[in-house]
Automatic annotation (TrEMBL):
This is Alkylhydroperoxidase AhpD family core domain-containing protein. NCBIfam families: ahpD_dom (TIGR00778). Keywords: Oxidoreductase, Peroxidase. It holds the Pfam family CMD. Residues 27-105 form the Carboxymuconolactone decarboxylase-like domain. SUPFAM superfamilies: AhpD-like. Gene3D superfamilies: AhpD-like. The lineage of its organism: Bacteria, Pseudomonadati, Bacteroidota, Cytophagia, Cytophagales. One of its GO terms (molecular function) is peroxiredoxin activity. Signal peptide: none annotated. PANTHER family: ALKYL HYDROPEROXIDE REDUCTASE AHPD, BLR3452 PROTEIN. It comes from Algoriphagus boritolerans DSM 17298 = JCM 18970. It comes from the Bacteria.
């Protein structure tokens, strides 16, 4: 199982367990999170770039992977992703660098996975 498959499988498994507990507050929060990134006055690409930058500054590797995947699905190009990386680095400082390394690795995995489908 590769990095992307492993992340997505674990996330789906644990989300099913969490939501299976039928806690109203947790379900509402998950729904709020999902709806926040839906197209509105800002398009999905823009929202994912914001989510990615914030996740990097907050140093949440799972969130970074999630937003990289969604950014990839939304059609962001490598150059756009690296601009987001640069914003996060300027805002967050050098503490973001280890997360930047893992983000680049995950982005490369996403783009290589697409190449492998053909």
């Amino acid at each position: 199982m590769n990095l992307i498959e492993e992340f997505n499988a674990y996330r789906a498994k644990m989300n099913d367990k969490i939501l299976g507990e039928d806690n109203k507050v947790i379900k509402r929060f998950f729904n709020l999170d999902t709806n926040t990134y839906a197209s509105g006055e800002l398009d999905v690409k823009t929202k994912e770039m914001i989510g990615l930058a914030c996740s990097m500054v907050l140093r949440c590797d799972d969130c970074i992977k999630y937003h990289l995947g969604k950014s990839y699905d939304a059609g962001l190009k490598k150059e756009e992703i690296f601009e987001v990386f640069s914003i996060a680095l300027v805002i967050g400082g050098s503490i973001v660098i280890p997360h930047l390394r893992r983000a680049v690795e995950y982005w490369e995995e996403l783009t290589n996975q697409q190449l492998n489908y053909f």
